[in-house]
Every structure is written in structure tokens, then in C-alpha cells.
Amino acid sequence: MNTYPRLPLLLTRGEGCRVFDAEGRPYLDFVAGIAVNNLGHCHPDVVSAIQTQAARLMHVSNLYHNDRQIELSRLLAEQAFSGRAFFCNSGAEANEAAIKLARKFSKEHFGPERFEILTMVNSFHGRTLAALSATGQEKYQKGYDPLVPGFSYVPYDDLPALEKAISPRTAAIMLEPILGEGGVRVPKPGYLSGIRKICDEKSLLMILDEVQTGMGRTGRFYAFEWEGIQPDILSLAKGLGGGFPIGAMLATERVARSFVPGSHASTFGGNPLACAAAIAAVTLLARADVLTHCQKMGEYLTERLVGLKRRYPVIQEVRGRGLLIGVELGVPAMPLIERALANGLLLNRTTDRVLRLVPPLIITPDEIDEGIRILEGLLKDGKDG
Ligand code: PLP
Question: Does 2 fall in a domain?
Fold first, then answer.
């Protein structure tokens, strides 16, 4: 169906930080499937894991155990958040699972009136109806009412407003550690730890949506590690499968206990092929050298963009963390994105005027220089104000 405003580009192949169109023309990819291809396109370890697993066991029902799902759960439990995992197929589904678990846990522990989840203005949690209802952006919700009840939106990065919104009905606070879709907004230091403290004091669940910020994107495996805190529930997808679709909702042992056999399910969730891809991806993305490289490349790309900002006033702000970078322009970003495409560079925007740069974490300084050269050429033309 006609649900995507697509650019006129037909892609047929990818390798590292480049994709190729049907005529074999290369494009430097600063979009990476929107923060999915964190290891670049067709990473040999992920390809080989998928090939081996496809020939061994592709799918079995969750009526049984499968070795790859167990292995992936263990691998995730060794990272900065150790708990139980529910596997699904996308970010929206991971958030659906998070919302359901938070409601079930809160009703069981605090009674039937405690179900409300506070989420953030300008957040993005996915397009299924509950995830959409959690999303604090009217433009995505228009036409789909009645929405799922039980969500209330508060301004992001505003602890006093959040505290004011808490009522006896509040069960959980759900947020992204950095607003991704909402314009790449990094909150002030102390914001996440402040929410953790509020949740502890008021016995609320802290749900972090790391669908976009996780899997090394900010230079730590999870973005919450920068604040030295832990959520109660964590949703993952995007980079988790190295390009293969898989999502996960993780929860602490205590919270996860509210899900019992029959509470929730997904036919494809945790299927051996997806888990094999994710095992290969997580093994690489958790490596200290990969994360350090992401931090360094994030600093380098930011520095180069700040250099452009000094020379081209159309760039109003450069912000972000690691390789999740927003470039706020004084004009709509779309014309620039179209011209970048014509010049062999893939770019993406979030809000109307914010470019979102999310290249693969394995990008090199030379590739960054190449992207900046193309971008500067376009800015020099001055057609974007
Ligand atoms: N949560 C966040 C923070 C996201 O950025 C996205 C997608 O952009 C989602 C959830 C939804 O993920 P999916 O498109 O896999 O359903």
C-alpha cells in the first residue's frame, strides 16, 4: 500500500557503509536502514550465521525450546541489563509487550486502578495501536481514534512536570533515553537518573525504549549506561538482528514474573533464524573496540558538522550522542536530502527541519570525510537558504 513517501531509488545490494542501486551506482549510507545496519550492510559474521542457521533450523514454534533463543537470552543477560527476555519481531511489538507487562505487573501488585503510563511529548514508540497511543505526537495518531486509553503525555526533559503528572493511577514512566524520531533531543545529564529515583520512591516502573538508541548506537551498548542506571523494562529492535528483523522486551526477574505461560505470545518471536542473526550482531556490537570506535566516529562526525555550521548559517544546531546525530536546519530538510541522493549520499530527516545522521557504527574517518564533502558541496550551492 501507499504508506511510504519513498525517494526515487531502487536498491539491490549493500556492503559495509554503501548500498548500490539497480544500475550498480553506489551510495554512501548515512541512514543505515534508520539505525538498523549498525554493523554495516551484509556483515560477514551476520551473513554466515544466517546461512548456517537457515540450513539447520529456520523456524519452530514457541511450543518448544530452541537452542538459538536460549543462547541469545544468555548473551543479552551478560550485557548491562540482566533479566528475562521476550522476543518479537519489531520495535512496536517490543513496546506492546512492555506496555502489557507493565499493566499486568502493576495491577497484580497495586490493584486494578493502577494502569496509566506516562510517556513523553514528541516521543515515538511505533505504529501498532497501543504503541501509537504511547507515542506523544498527534500527527501519527490522527485518524486512528479512539486510541488505547491509559496514556498521558508530559514534556520531555522536565522532571518537575513529570512529578506533577504522577497520580495514584500511574503505573509506569516510559521514554526514550534520547528522543530519536522527535528530533534527536538529548536530555540534560541527571534526567534519566532523576526518573529512576522518582520511580524508586513511588514504586513505579521505568520503561526505556532503546529501539533506536540501543545496540551501541550512542557508543555504549545501551544509552542508559551513560547515566549509570537500569530500567525495569527495556525494549529493543532495529540493530538487534544486524539487519534481520527481531525485537525484544527485557525485564528484571521480579517484573518478568507477571508474565506466565499464556500471558503473551508471538508465532515468529525468537525464531531460530532471527536469533542466530542477533547472536552474531550482539557479539560484535558488545565489543569494547566497536563501541569505542562508535564514540570516536561520533565525535569526529560531530566536529566536522560543527565546522560546517560555522561556515553555513543554514545549519542552526548539531546535537546527539555517539552516531545518533541531529542537524537542525533553518529550512525544510527534504530538498537537501533529494540533492544528496542525486550526489550519492543517503540522508534522512526526523522532523521537517532536522537531518538525522545514523550511519553504520563501523564507518571510517574517510567515509565521514566523503559524506561531509558531498554535504558541503550542496550547502555551497546555497539552494537551501
Ligand atoms: N521505538 C523507537 C524509539 C523507534 O525509533 C521506533 C522506530 O523508529 C520504534 C519504537 C518502532 O519500531 P518498529 O518500526 O520496528 O516497529
Answer: no
